[in-house]
Design goal:
Two copies of one chain form a homodimer.
Chain A (H helix, E strand, L loop, with lengths): L2 E3 L5 H7 L4 H7 L1 E5 L1 H9 L6 E5 L5 H12 L3 E5 L1 H8 L7 E6 L15 E6 L4 H14 L3 E5 L8 H7 L7 E5 L1 H8 L5 E5 L16 E5 L8 H6 L2 E3 L12 H17 L1
Parallel strand pairs in A: 1-4, 3-4, 6-7, 6-10, 7-8, 9-10, 9-11
Antiparallel strand pairs in A: 2-5, 3-5
Amino acid sequence: MPRQVTSFSNETVKRIRALRDKKARREQGLFLAEGLRIIAEARDSRRLPETIVFASGGLHPLAAEIIAATEAAGGDAIETTPDILSKMSGKDNPQMLLGAYRQPATDLARIDRTSSPLWMVLQSLRDPGNIGTILRTGDAVGAGGLILLDDSADPYSVEAVRASMGAIFTQAVAAARWDEFLLWLRSGPGQLVGTSLKTDTDYLSARYEQPCFLLIGNEQAGLPSAYEAECDLLVKIPMAGRADSLNAAIAAAVMAFQVRASWRG
Amino acid sequence: MPRQVTSFSNETVKRIRALRDKKARREQGLFLAEGLRIIAEARDSRRLPETIVFASGGLHPLAAEIIAATEAAGGDAIETTPDILSKMSGKDNPQMLLGAYRQPATDLARIDRTSSPLWMVLQSLRDPGNIGTILRTGDAVGAGGLILLDDSADPYSVEAVRASMGAIFTQAVAAARWDEFLLWLRSGPGQLVGTSLKTDTDYLSARYEQPCFLLIGNEQAGLPSAYEAECDLLVKIPMAGRADSLNAAIAAAVMAFQVRASWRG
């Protein structure tokens, strides 16, 4: 049976609210997903929350089903007021369902590169919305997952999880320093592909090999030269306008769809 | 000579700060751009602000040049403290340069469809970040501009301008109701292309004609059926993963780059 919580000062309320902060996420090893759509997506990927919180009254049948499944799996179900849910989610119009999920380990050893022809690799991406959007794009294009290099934003932040639209549960996620990643990459098959202004190779005519690792650089600085130098292939997306760059999530998508298109052709 | 402003209650400070709200933008007919990069981009597109505000000390030579040009063109230059600039920009780490620009008229009559082979058309997009990102993508891919249908977010909001990375100054922008847009569209050449799940036509094999009008639907609901029915071409971007949709700005970019690729081939 769900526990009833009616106090703002309840320990579970405080613990879940704290998951908006990276430090608390790291300490607890948990992250938040909000809303029935993403939580149902997680369940379809056989992931249930450790704690699920919902507002009293008018529960969607699918929500009720996931709450029951969470309890059956030993998780904690908490029924509370819209006010308290609002405090937990930090929004005026909160989603009526919150789940706190265990963060998977993010070491490279978890990545099975043979499980997919395409992998996204992000170097020091700082915008969690971009990271979530790239997860969502990765799911759409059939990528296996996301490897975060150096000082990237947290893929388990609320904003990244929201932008992923559930792909945080379907895409593998790993984090590593550049040197560590290179060692791992060169220990098996894999073409490292970067976008660059310093090449004449058009992204439309390049030959992409499987597994392909698409390397996307930081939003402001792009890829460091030393990283470009390690790429097996550098390609250019020709720009028709005044600007010389794309939004990082857009560049990742244009490249990923072109790589896939080249294999479908 | 720049005016010195040292009071938070100064009328100009209040008026510029108010430009974060859509109502004030409409009343004043102005919008804000922040930071040297975007303001220099505007100048390169022969657009100067009516009012330019900067913090005392350590001015970049390019900023000084644009401030002088603004004054020479009859605009207002205001030198103030970092504190007041911070209040105007609503951020703790404000850009050291703000410009208030006149909003161009947004009637369809301003759009010269023969000036570009590609136009972006957004139906009720609600996220200003998406609108700014699509402007930036449009610039990169050589689109002529953006037509906003129905209840779209304001392309002149601070968030949209920021995400556009200056493309708000290089892309034409129009706004219209659907009926009005259709009348205008059918009064000249133009292929209206929508993305849909209800077609078998792959976006990679479709034939795109010039000028091509790419229609992107609302983030949540996608395109209404009645709008799809008016399209000259419906295409599908096949999804490999669990999800059946892409982020709106991603879908716009994947389509725009493919349309352009089909013409380059």
